[in-house]
Amino acid sequence: MMIDALVPDRLRYLLQSLQINEALRELNATTGYRFTAVYRFTATGAANLAIFDRESDAPEALLVVPEGASYCGIVRESKNAFLVTRSLEDGRIVRHPAREAVQSYCGVPLIGDDGVVFGSLCHFDFEPRIVSDDVTELMSEVSRYLSPESGMDELAETVAQRITRLSLMADVIRDAARDPDEMRETFNIYAQPVRLQAEALRPPVRAAMEQRLSALLESILAPAHPA
Asked: Under a CB-based contact definition with an 8 Å cutoff, are residues 108 and 140 in contact?
């Protein structure tokens, strides 16, 4: 039985019912951080499963993180919590690529039943943040509710929405390209972040998303028929 006296009742309910986006909102409210997120590690870095941004919609640049580009990689390697309060004054991360942009971070590992670290739960901000030990302790308790399947529905919805937005760019891609090869190259540039994020989805869902991307590319390459 899980000992989770630190986890408020509403947050516990949201986690147990896999309402991950709402759970992140609730968790974020216990801190001063701008962002709270769940990432799943992939072969090339980390894909966002769910993210809450208290100021607006999170930038798309945060949805896919290349390997080594975030502090989550430190969590993955150490299998332990990692806390940064003032990155520009932290000697541990002098050469880290995220040091100047992400100035505060609190992350804990997500560990499956097989003992493998499959992701991270983290707070972060572009500004320095000083936090108490209670924040890390609560994060560790919350992480026990998150399995490799957690947040998959939210991620699938996010990927689907991004493909829909990409479809709205079809005419722009056609007009900007001189020939089919250039159309394909331009499309792949815009589709690459979507494909990277989809790596964290279950194989059947990932395949369905790839089929949607393939169908969209074919529609862009199809010659226009005069009215």
From this structure: yes
For the segment 187-213, what is each residue's pLDDT rounded down to a tens digit? Answer: 999 998 899 888 888 888 989 999 999
The predicted-structure confidence for 53-80, as pLDDT tens digits, reads as follows: 999 887 877 888 888 999 999 999 999 9
Is residue 4 included in any domain, yes or no?
A: no
> Considering the entire predicted model, what is its pTM?
0.80
Q: Which domain holds residue 163?
A: 153-221
Place of tokens 């949201």: 14
Q: Give the integer Cα–Cα distance in Å for 220 and 209.
A: 17
- Judge contact between 198 and 149, C-beta under 8 A: no
Is residue 164 situated within a structural domain?
yes
